[in-house]
């Protein structure tokens, strides 16, 4: 069955991913419709769109998560498909189904496939039948201490006790040896009871210092599924990915094929279509354990695009339009190395607090091997209401070493003024000896951040700053000392803004 | 033009003059050969001898930061002939204001007026960009005053509480 390509796509998202999808639409000659909340009128995705529709208040539930409003825009604009990006409604099965019911194509998997992945037990049963490896353990709660002892001995220490109703580390205990089991089990049970009102606790093998590696898959609507190589995502802070790379430095061709085949089986077990990602934990002996499947385009998809030469968003759109995959597994091959840095609006010197506000100066890197997917621009104010991801900087090279050196060079060119960003964190990661030696695991960043930053600063840099300070003042840029250049309009405006700011804070203090 | 520049507690006396398109520069009594081009607002291309630097200027609240490479310096510039003195209210003793480090919403207050707090104890939780952040007391003391209520929107620099 041949379907005609879409004429108009609605992008139900914001920020860099909305811009990313919008660019793909324009490259394919498709009109791009966007939606925006009250605080996003000036956002980049609205500036670049062909049509833009306001959908309500800043709170996501009033705008980007509001299925009714988004489908209403689809209808009013005559869009024939919706791309959900990542986050927001991208993994919402109800939304995927509502699109079908409204006669507009959802660019992603079916609601049924999402549901199958969302429900832990159903997904697990389907996958166990397909021979997918799980972390060894009990899938249901243990009945007694004796049973816990027996299970732990069978799977081997260390083991992890987890609250069945759990999340956020509550009701979790790491048990190193048999003599710790009894008190840990009691502790986990009572904590689970207090936190979730349910004392059910199950046991899993503890994977010590695992790597987090994921496999990209792509499936068309004609039964063809391929894998596009892995991404190493072990560098995380508070369970949030910070830097990703492809290929993984520890995965060779044989392991890639093994992982890829498991990922394809996972996708097929759920009758999955479109782009998806199968996440694995990998232990120090390179054993794979299935973690979950993400039923959307991932933030870090560009590293896969750079090493495969494929455009995942183009392919998502073509698959959704009913086309067959234009290549087979044997045609996919990996060349070079790519690393992505997630540039967040957060302050590395202040415990990574979010740092929204106006971007007063933006100098962006370019040059060989550099890709930048960004949702910000100079003069734009980053709102406080959404995720702090501003942009992604991706370095590509013949090998990992060249990718690192290009990225290091590009980071030295990158400057975002007016708000704080985590750019300095990446400079530090990229010069870290363990990172350069590819000794990565999910505890890497926490360990690195506990060490003092041993960077040596050129003693002359302070003198350079002193001379520059005088030059800025003499040349009448905004570097001028406050209040001293009354002839300079911009400097005056800043003084005014500042004194206003001061008086506001004074008023607040008096309240 | 004479400038007094303070960087990290160190003072520099800078004398900059331009005649016939050439700069003369004296830094703490040393003559230096410099030249500068303002490439765009806030971006200065600076040569000292034949060494080249790109220096970026950034104002955050009422602080001036200059970036030399990836190193940030907090800078104060004064014209020594000006009577405008700059006083800094950053004394370490006595009451300390606990301020919001970023704009956001106060989701929870963790102390009441009169409570004893230890250094590092949480005082309030402020949410911004989908993240909840605990704002901590910088010192041991008593919560003298709480200036915000739960649910209040705050700006960066707003005083949340005072610890004495």
Beta strand % of chain B:
over 45%
Write down the overall geometry of chain B.
elongated
Radius of gyration of chain B: 22 Å
Major sheet strand order of chain A: 13-12-9-10-11-14-21-19
What is the residue-averaged pLDDT of chain B?
87
Classify the secondary structure makeup of chain B into a structural class. Answer: mainly beta
With strands numbered from the N-terminus, the spatial order across the biggest sheet of chain B is 4-3-2-1-9-8-7-6-5
Radius of gyration of chain A: 25 Å
CATH architectural group of the largest domain in chain B: 2-Layer Sandwich
Helix and strand content put the structural class of chain A at alpha+beta
Write down the CATH topology of the largest domain in chain A: D-amino Acid Aminotransferase, Chain A, domain 1
Query: Could you state the CATH homologous superfamily of the largest domain in chain A?
Result: ATP-grasp fold, B domain
Distance N to C terminus of chain B = 44 Å
Order of helices and strands of chain B: EEEEEEEEEEEEEEEEE
Largest sheet of chain B: 9 strands, antiparallel
How many distinct helices of chain A? 17
Mean pLDDT across every amino acid position of chain A: 90
Description of the structure:
The complex is a heterodimer of chains A (511) and B (164). Chain A has an eight-stranded antiparallel beta sheet with strand order 13-12-9-10-11-14-21-19. In chain A, strands 3-2-1-4-5 form a five-stranded parallel beta sheet. Chain A has helices at 15-27, 44-48, 67-77, 93-101, 111-118, 120-129, 145-155, 181-196, 253-269, 301-308, 312-320, 400-413, 423-431, 433-436, 444-450, 460-475, 489-510; strands at residues 8-11, 31-36, 51-54, 81-83, 105-106, 159-163, 173-175, 201-205, 211-219, 225-237, 240-246, 274-282, 288-294, 337-344, 346-347, 353-354, 357-358, 361-363, 370-374, 381-382, 389-397, 415-417. Chain A is built from 17 helices and 22 strands. Chain A folds into four domains: 8-107, Rossmann fold, CATH 3.40.50.20; 110-134 and 208-335, D-amino Acid Aminotransferase, Chain A, domain 1 (2-Layer Sandwich), CATH 3.30.470.20; 145-205, ATP-grasp fold, A domain (Dna Ligase, domain 1), CATH 3.30.1490.20; 460-510, no CATH class. Residues 478-511 of chain A have low confidence and may be disordered. Chain A is globular and about 80 Å long. Chain B has two domains: 2-78, Glycoprotein, Type 4 Pilin; 96-163, OB fold (Dihydrolipoamide Acetyltransferase, E2P) (Beta Barrel). Chain B has no helices and 17 strands. In chain B, 0% of the residues lie in helices and 61% in strands. The model of chain B is unreliable at 84-92 (pLDDT under 50). Chain B has a nine-stranded antiparallel beta sheet with strand order 4-3-2-1-9-8-7-6-5, with no helix packed on it.
């Amino acid at each position: 069955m041949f379907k005609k390509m879409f004429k108009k796509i609605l992008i139900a998202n914001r920020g860099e991913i909305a811009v990313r999808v919008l660019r793909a639409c324009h490259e394919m000659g498709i009109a791009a419709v966007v939606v925006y909340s009250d605080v996003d009128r000036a956002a980049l995705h609205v500036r670049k769109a062909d049509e833009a529709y306001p959908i309500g208040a800043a709170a996501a539930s009033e705008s980007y998560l509001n299925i009714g409003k988004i489908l209403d825009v689809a209808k009013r604009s005559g869009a024939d498909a919706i791309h959900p990006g990542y986050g927001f409604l991208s993994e919402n099965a109800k939304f995927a189904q509502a699109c079908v019911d409204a006669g507009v194509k959802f660019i992603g998997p079916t609601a049924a496939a999402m549901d199958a992945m969302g429900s832990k037990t159903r997904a697990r049963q389907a996958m166990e039948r397909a021979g997918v490896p799980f972390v060894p353990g009990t899938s249901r709660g243990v009945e007694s201490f004796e049973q816990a002892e027996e299970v732990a001995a069978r799977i081997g220490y260390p083991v992890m006790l987890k609250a069945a109703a759990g999340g956020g580390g509550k009701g979790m205990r790491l048990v190193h040896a048999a003599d710790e089991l009894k008190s840990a089990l009691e502790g986990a049970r009572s904590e689970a009871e207090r936190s979730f009102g349910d004392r059910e606790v199950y046991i899993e093998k503890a994977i010590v210092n695992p790597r987090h590696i994921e496999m990209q898959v792509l499936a068309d609507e004609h039964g063809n599924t391929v894998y596009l190589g892995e991404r190493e995502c072990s560098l995380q802070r508070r369970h949030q990915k910070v830097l990703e790379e492809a290929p993984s430095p520890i995965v060779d061709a044989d392991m890639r094929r093994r992982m890829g085949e498991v990922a394809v089986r996972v996708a097929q077990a759920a009758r999955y279509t479109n782009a998806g990602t199968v996440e694995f934990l990998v232990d120090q002996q390179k054993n794979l354990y299935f973690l979950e499947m993400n039923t959307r385009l991932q933030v870090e998809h560009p590293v896969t695009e750079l090493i495969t030469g494929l455009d995942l968003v183009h392919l998502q759109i073509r698959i959704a339009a009913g086309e067959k995959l234009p290549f087979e597994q044997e045609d996919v091959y990996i060349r070079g190395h790519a690393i992505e840095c997630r540039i967040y609006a957060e302050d590395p010197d202040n415990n990574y607090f979010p740092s929204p506000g106006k971007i007063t100066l933006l100098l962006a890197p370019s040059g060989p091997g550099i890709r930048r997917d960004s949702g910000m621009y100079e003069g734009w104010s980053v709102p406080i209401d959404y995720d702090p991801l501003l942009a992604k900087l991706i370095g590509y090279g013949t090998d990992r070493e060249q990718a690192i050196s290009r990225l290091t060079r590009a980071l030295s060119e990158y400057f975002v003024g007016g708000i704080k960003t985590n750019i300095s964190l990446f400079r530090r990661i990229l010069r870290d000896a363990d990172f350069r030696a590819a000794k990565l695991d999910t505890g890497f960043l926490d360990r690195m951040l506990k060490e003092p930053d041993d960077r040596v600063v050129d003693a002359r840099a302070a003198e350079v700053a002193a001379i520059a300070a005088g030059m800025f003042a003499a040349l009448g840029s905004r570097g001028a000392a406050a209040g001293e250049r009354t002839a300079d309009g911009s400097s005056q405006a800043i003084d005014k803004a500042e004194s206003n700011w001061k008086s506001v804070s004074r008023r607040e203090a008096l309240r | 033009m004479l400038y007094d520049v303070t960087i990290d507690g160190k003072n520099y006396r800078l004398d900059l003059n331009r005649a016939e398109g050439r700069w003369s520069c004296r830094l703490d009594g040393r003559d230096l050969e410099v030249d500068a081009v303002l490439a765009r607002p806030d971006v200065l291309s600076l040569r000292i001898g034949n060494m080249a630097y790109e220096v970026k200027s950034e104002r955050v609240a009422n602080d001036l930061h200059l970036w030399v490479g990836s190193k940030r310096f907090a800078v104060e510039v004064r014209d020594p002939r000006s009577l405008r003195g700059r006083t800094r209210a950053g004394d370490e003793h006595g009451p300390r204001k606990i301020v919001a480090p970023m704009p956001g919403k106060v989701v929870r207050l963790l102390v009441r007026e009169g409570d004893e707090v230890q250094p590092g104890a949480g005082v309030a939780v402020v949410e911004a960009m989908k993240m909840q952040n605990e704002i901590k007391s910088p010192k041991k003391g008593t919560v003298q005053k709480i200036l915000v209520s739960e649910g209040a929107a705050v700006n960066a620099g707003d005083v949340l509480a005072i610890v004495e």
